[in-house]
Amino acid sequence: MTQVMETMQLEFSEKLSAIDNSKALNELRVEYLGKKGKVTGLMKEMKNLSNEERPAYGQKVNELRNTIEGQIAELEAELSKKALEEKLAAETIDVTLPGRTLEIGGSNPIDRIVEDIEDFFIGLGYEIKEGYEVEQDYYNFEALNLPKSHPARDMQDSFYISEDILLRTHTSPVQARTLEAQKGEGPVKIICPGKVYRRDSDDATHSHQFTQIEGLVVDKNIRLSDLKGTLELFAKEIFGSEREVRLRPSYFPFTEPSVEVDISCFKCKGSGCNVCKQTGWIEILGAGMVHPNVLEMAGFDSKEYSGFAFGMGPDRVAMLKYGIEDIRHLYTNDLRFIDQFIPTEDGGEQ
Ligand code: FA5
């Protein structure tokens, strides 16, 4: 090698020894071996040499280029091995780290109560039926013995979509539809859970949208005592085995006789407290014997068939059962409220 080449080689080796990443290595490669690089520059010198000098010079430059290329390749291999090792070290899984737990959601207390009530009635052989939230005036009122302009329509003020279409005010239209579909043939044994709507002003116990569960049994020889027995079993299942049921006379246009159903207070056991407003009893639903007009309008012979129906508000049942003081908590999706109903592993609540 010439003196120039030796100096270049030394200078290159020195620079190479300071390099610790592939970007810098590439820059060095370009500096020496690129088109305008230092070694390439030496090649270009050949044209100034005589024919005799050229072969020896050419060989020396080639040697220099091979050496430099070899050194670069060596460092390149070293750097990529180091990069791989670093990557592997960084990606190592630390099995001692505690796992990340998934947050489990809870179901709304209304859904739970509805499921409990459904389970109970399914156990007694009832079928679940669902109707329409957007309903015809005919099924919501007329087929239930509430012709247009009947004063009792005021008991359930509604949201109308057109003169004959409205958001249903109760789940009772499912009764009317189911009876009609039976074409006068019993038995019928259904419960109908679902959302209903009323133009009530929202307060602690009223919501413009709430949930109801309707029950209907129609067959030959169905009596008021069958209704009472069914509701007694229901109250014991949902509110505890010591509960008693009391029927009070009431009025619904679609039942005759009509009753309000109270259960003995599960908190004070009848002695009087804030839950039962010191009466010892809690009102849970409206019910009665299906009015003969309703049976006849749906095509049933009311002399042959009779039945009972009831309609309850699971929102209020959930409020009583879980001690919720404001119905609006059930609908505002505040996680601080809902999270209290997340089941724990032992089957309780958080
Ligand atoms: C009815 O809706 C009747 N369809 C029930 C019925 C069915 C009677 C079959 C006879 C035979 P009522 O308007 O009382 O009845 O409502 C029933 C239940 O819905 C009430 O006991 C109450 O728990 C609930 N409820 C009524 N209005 C509201 C409201 N604005 N917010 C929350 N719950 C309500």
From TrEMBL:
Q: How the cofactor binds, per note? A: Binds 2 magnesium ions per tetramer.
**Gene Ontology annotations of biological process type:** phenylalanyl-tRNA aminoacylation
Coiled-coil ranges from the UniProt annotation: 58-85
Look up the signal peptide feature and give its range.
Answer: none
Instruction: Give cofactor(s), names only.
Output: Mg(2+)
* GO cellular component labels: cytoplasm
Q: Which InterPro entries match?
A: aa-tRNA-synth_II, aa-tRNA-synth_II/BPL/LPL, Phe-tRNA-synth_IIc_asu, Phe-tRNA_ligase_II_N, Phe_tRNA_ligase_alpha1_bac, Phenylalanyl-tRNA_Synthase, tRNA-bd_arm
**Protein family per UniProt:** Belongs to the class-II aminoacyl-tRNA synthetase family. Phe-tRNA synthetase alpha subunit type 1 subfamily.
Q: What is this protein called?
A: Phenylalanine--tRNA ligase alpha subunit
Source organism of this protein record: Jeotgalicoccus saudimassiliensis
